[in-house]
Amino acid sequence: MSDFVDRVTVHVKGGDGGNGSAGIRREKYKPLAGPNGGNGGDGGSVIFVASRNATSLLDYRFMPHRVAPGGTMGLGDNKDGSKGDDLILPVPCGTVIFTARGPQGQPKHPGEQLADLRHEGDRFVAAAGGAGGLGNIALANRTRRAPGFALLGELGEERDVILELKSIADVALVGFPSAGKSSLIAAMSSAKPKIADYPFTTLVPNLGVVVAGDTRYTIADVPGLIPGASQGKGLGLEFLRHIERTEIIAHVIDCATLEPDRDPVSDYEALEKELAEYAGSLELPLGAIPIPERPRIVILNKADVPEAKELAEFVRPEFEKRGMKTFIISTASHEGLKELNFALAKMVDEMRGEIAKRESEEEAARVVIKPLEHAGRRRRSTDERGTALDFTIERKELGNGDVWFEVTGRKPERWVQQTNFDNDEAVGYLADRLAKLGVEDELRRKGAHAGDEIRIGHGDRAVAFDWDPTIAAGAEMLDGTQLGARGKDLRLDEDEGRAHRRTNTERRREYHEMMDAKAAVREAMMAERKAGHWADPSVDDDRHDETSLFGRGEGVEE
């Protein structure tokens, strides 16, 4: 079984943001001293990084699901939750990342290209982590002084991506099966590819590192390249992508073949035809040289066979007339390998300089627009008033008569994720945000009426509810009576005496006022008693009172 994997589908998910805390600070003599709930931590992101230490995508075939850690929940005492660590996934240099398209449960095929990690250290955030929810201390303001709710953390981004490896080598060896490409790599480098005397021995691209003086370069072979490979015949289409990043194309031609319809010139022309057809469908990266314009070199192999060496000497002038350097070698006897090695090193140095020049020119001419901030990391919007670009509303209808209005947009969908629908105050806060954004006005303009079904978002994360534009948004007391704006607590209102801390002077004044009031009451009671308004309890004034303690009342039978 081969351990080389150059295409794999990976399911990535960013970490979920931690929920905010709705904590309340409590102090002596203050049962409610104000909100102190901290913010939730942000979730980690899934990041692919190009690394020279990675040589294959094999790890992602056996572990295709990668999830970043989530953030922790905020705590009381204004303690924010911890942020989830980013999940760094190393991939080989030359890895291209695509969106994965296809039905659920079926093999995926590449869609839009997302990133091209060509150089060491190139990074791509495949799944951003969700932002942590705000605690109630962050939601408090002049009109909402005691929020009894906090925002939930946002869910991390989740999707399928396809990783496709396009080997980055300086020299690509192309040729018919059994032409000696793997043997050449083994003779010029320390690579140990599988070598046998039958066609299609090499089933995966082989890489080898070659040193020539002060120059160090890599060579790779493209296995299974035969006529018709660009249309999917044989194995060539599967591995032709590995020739896209090479700087020099070296034709390895078997001069000892016994097939009657083959000769070195026809083999070269057949392979060039396949390369030209394949190059027509390529989108080359920045600064890359088109395949037809890349320098060629012809390697006539198997010169250790007398008939093959004679044929090589015969066809060599033909290739030199076409302006290509031609070398006669033998991987068995190592004849001509030294000259070939230094010739390739010289061509590699020249091409590296040319490519660096093209990349710098293209980079200078390209306009780069950087966003002010990442959309998924925004803590809160400074202005929640929306425009037509912030959301869209569409009227949906099924054949059975079901009608609903679908609200989509970054802000409404994010706000719905942050709302705890078990908390009436949080739901009222969401209603206020949507109204300020202009969602309710747009629903009326679209013809929505009270009781119609409204769906915010789409897919599994959509939230559906019946629209009630008359709902009172705000905090409500336990008996259902709304006493003020959302988050207003009487114990925090400076206008209320219960929230006012008296000074010593105020306490003394109130004490003297109370004592003066008591003395005035005693004087008034004594004056009424002296005036005869009070009866002596020891005298039975009412003979008809049956409940009298001293008399039995008149008319009572003994």
Major sheet, described briefly?
Answer: 6 strands, mixed
Q: Look at the helices and sheets and give the structural class.
A: alpha/beta
According to DSSP, the number of beta strands is 18
Number of domain units: 3
Instruction: Tell me the CATH superfamily of the largest domain.
Output: P-loop containing nucleotide triphosphate hydrolases
Question: For the CA atoms, what is the radius of gyration?
Answer: 42 Å
The largest sheet has its strands arranged as 10-11-9-12-13-14
CATH fold type of the largest domain: Rossmann fold
Domain OBG-type G: 169-349
Enzyme class: hydrolase
Organism: Bifidobacterium angulatum DSM 20098 = JCM 7096
Domain Obg: 2-168
Give a written overview of the molecule.
By secondary structure, the chain is α/β, with parallel strands linked by helices. The protein has three domains: 7-165, GTP1/OBG domain (Spo0b-associated Gtp-binding Protein, Chain: A), CATH 2.70.210.12; 169-363, Rossmann fold (3-Layer(aba) Sandwich); 392-471, 2-Layer Sandwich (GMP Synthetase, Chain A, domain 3). Helices cover 25% and strands 19% of the residues. It has eleven helices and 18 strands. It has helices at residues 58-62, 136-139, 181-188, 236-239, 264-279, 306-321, 337-365, 410-418, 424-437, 439-445, 504-530; strands at residues 7-13, 46-51, 65-67, 87-92, 95-101, 109-117, 123-127, 158-165, 171-174, 207-212, 215-221, 248-254, 296-301, 325-328, 392-397, 403-408, 453-456, 463-466. The protein has a six-stranded mixed beta sheet with strand order 10-11-9-12-13-14, sandwiched between helices. The protein is elongated. The model is unreliable at 232-237, 373-383, 472-487 and 494-499 (pLDDT under 50).
